[in-house]
Amino acid sequence: MNKFFNTAGPIKPEMHYYISSADRIDWDEIDMLIAGQKYFLLHAPRQTGKTSALLEMMERINRKGDYNVLYANIEAAQAARNNIEAGIGVVCESIVSSAKIYINNEEIGSWYKSDGLTYKPENQLNSLLTHFAQISSKPLVLFLDEVDALVGDTLISLLRQIRAGYAQRPEYFPQSIVLCGLRDIRDYRIHRSDGEIITGGSAFNIKSESLRMGNFTYEENKDLYLQHTKETGQTFSEEIYPELWEDTKGQPWLVNALAYEMTWKIKQLRDRAVPITIEHYHVAKENLIRSRATHLDQLADKLKEPRVHRVISKLLAGDQGEIQNQTQEEMSDDDLQYLADLGLITIKPKIAISNRIYQEIIPRELTFSTQYMIPNQEQQWYLTPGEKQNSHYLNIPKLLQAFQQYFRENSESWIERFDYKEAGPQLLIQAFLQRIINGGGRINREYGLGSKRTDLSIEWPIDPEQGYFGEVQRIIIELKIHHKKHKLETIITEGLQQTAEYADKQSANEAHLIIFNRDKEISWDEKIWQDNKTYRVGNQQRDIGVWGC
After folding, report:
1. How far is CA 330 from the centre of its chain?
2. Given this structure, which CATH class describes domain 20-212?
3. Which of 59, 171, 237, 285 is most buried as measured by Cβ atoms within 10 A of its Cβ?
């Protein structure tokens, strides 16, 4: 069977193209921590290869022969919540089962059934690990995966039982325990059954280090795809790799999912003699975004969390410190680090949503129902026939005029429905544009905290039959917010420069600047206006439509 790109579950080297965890983890540090009898964390965002890394680590260390290393996935204990008896029981059963599978140890299972179950839940895991360490022929090392899936009293009990045995290592407790999950333990907010909140740091203060597993590098992205070329002879255009990097920043699931779309979901490319072009890549990207795949769905679900809302709302608004709704707690360093641990944002060199696909997914998810509920707007109303048969251009001035009227009539009611009201105007125009452009073209989004702007880049294939393989109309729309304390002239001047520079960067055919006035004391007749400006970038003079809303 030919190998394929993996998008679900741990890597199987005989089946999947893969980048070894040895290239993504500091093995020397891990060896040192285990030799030093340390308890530590390995965390990374969902579907970045944590489980595959732990399994590879277990196999590698067991092969060296210095330790008995055991991997156990304890996610099933999540269902127990505050039921310590049920939750700790699941954890113990997982360890016993894994001992039989991975190190061929059935003795601990026999002991657990005969003696281990006689212990109270509050001491059952501790007793199991104590006995296991005693009977192990070598120092015991334990990898516990999906620890932060556990909740409530079950999680507190697990952490405390491990902490209680820590001083007896390695003769009477595991030499080293590695906890693996999505977050650093400092971000655990554990709600006990009595309502008390305990942080993970206080419940597990024996932690030595917290290691984060990174994404693929640019070269690893390329190396992964070239494995397919080597296996099948099918080539990827060199143009793909810079786009792949900007779209994913090496997020492993995204990199694999895009490759799977190209090499399998696009049927014509199942013929390995057909080279994969940059346009095939763009089609695959759009298909992936529209699919609302499980990974992307989980990402969208995080947007409901208050800590996530505080940061993402400011990013979408593009305006730190000048957001109208200041009733929520300002985002903290802890909030920023939490989102970085989840893989939603990067902090350096600037605070931004992690990659272009997430930039696209987040506003689409927030406006998913909105765009389909916008009435009386049809794509064909905004198409202008081209010179060639069946060719059509987007009439952007007509489209923006329609949006102005729609915004005037409906913005107040729609923005109130958004969970992210701070970015309401930006989200509403994106929903409006998506409603019109969806299925015919695509919208790319760019925003960053403190930029005071949102950049929209629209690509519209002129000939539907040729699609993106033919001529493409490229339009830039810059969004800015006019706050009361700033002069309109200043915002226009700044906006024209930003719009012109971005349009030049994107080789756009057309550029527009939209300014939203959030001053409730100003009448709609004053807010709604249109003008045309010119701005010179280098030797080129660019015409820019300026729209007030």
Report:
1. 22
2. alpha beta
3. 285
